[in-house]
Amino acid sequence: MRLLPTKSIKPGMKLAKSIYNDKGRILLSSGIPITKRMISTLETLHVTYVYIEDSRTSDIHTPSMISEPVRKEAMETIVSTFNEMKDLTLSKKFMLDQSSKKFRELIQNIITDMKNNEEVASLLTDIYIHDNYVFTHSLNVTVYALSIGLKLGLSSKELETLGLGGIMHDIGKMLIPKEILHKPGKLTSEEFKMMKSHTTKGYDLLRNMHTIPMLVAHCAFQHHERLNGSGYPRGLKKDDIHLFGKILAVADVFDACTSHRVYRNAMLPHEGLEILYSGSGSLFDKEIIEAFRKSVAIYPNGLTLELSDGSKGIVVGQNKDMTERPIVRIIEKDGVLLDTPFDVNLKNILSITIINCDLEDQQEAVS
Hints:
By secondary structure, this protein is α+β, with helices and mostly antiparallel strands. It folds into two domains: 2-62 and 301-365, no CATH class; 68-295, Hypothetical protein af1432 (Orthogonal Bundle), CATH 1.10.3210. It contains twelve helices and ten strands. The protein has helices at 36-44, 68-83, 90-116, 133-152, 156-168, 178-181, 189-196, 198-206, 214-222, 243-258, 269-278, 286-295, and strands at residues 2-5, 19-21, 26-28, 49-52, 127-129, 304-307, 311-317, 327-333, 336-345, 354-356. The strands form three sheets. A five-stranded antiparallel beta sheet has the order 9-8-7-6-10, with no helix packed on it. A three-stranded mixed beta sheet has the order 3-2-5, with no helix packed on it. Strand 8 and strand 9 form a beta hairpin. Helix 3 packs across helix 5 (156-168) and helix 5 crosses helix 9. The radius of gyration is 21 Å and the shape is globular. The N and C termini lie close together (10 Å).
């Protein structure tokens, strides 16, 4: 299978991976020839990239980070809990207290899935369309944060708390007016001020929950703080920011960059990582970025790459702790399609570098 931008796919191609809604139900099935209407639907749903069947890469494996039952249960719990958080009545607070117990069980299941999964993290493997970005974002950030925590060697208790912080970090957004939260264009200064208040609103809500650690409340409070003091809401610097706040800052920005949004296309993982590296040491913790780099698929399976030796290929596998050097199936050399593609492991050939992964004109290569 190949990963292609939606705007490059043509009628007659076949989806290699189904498109789901946030409840896990199939919206567009794999294996069926794509029509113009389907392409229009994908564009309307703001799906930036899709997996397309390709005979030369039919053996590519794109594993999910967490199992479908765990994902489905997590999304159902997030949606039901967050939707109840639209006012701060005593009954709502009690309900959140009760839901926190279920979240703990979910986090343990997510951690178990991740520990049993030998693959590096890639959430591009399954495409989910959501009515509210906050729901899917909360789960994605949790998975990314836990992948960092596992790489840093955090204890089981620390991972559980970090996971809770990931799921709850944006709960304050449920108290932001919908017209601001879902506005497709640029926010006004007053609207942006209101949007930024989600950190304080989330903190105020969570710190009064009896079953939620105070550190989880601080995850909501600190995930937009930056090392140089340029973040919000308090402008904290360096060691004044808790480790979990620093981890969630990296996970939050990466998922925001690589997710489909109404007002812009999703970036590819390597582009999201470049954003993080541009702020390494000034905005984001270097050690945390390095841990994340080792645990996320920078160039996901199915992506077409252009290499420095004049060849083009498709990513077919990953190297743990060296994800910037994937295994690539060479399909073209000096502009000529090869009759017999072959695989190269860039980890073992350091003289060859990745110079481009522009997907705009790759659809002609799909067969």
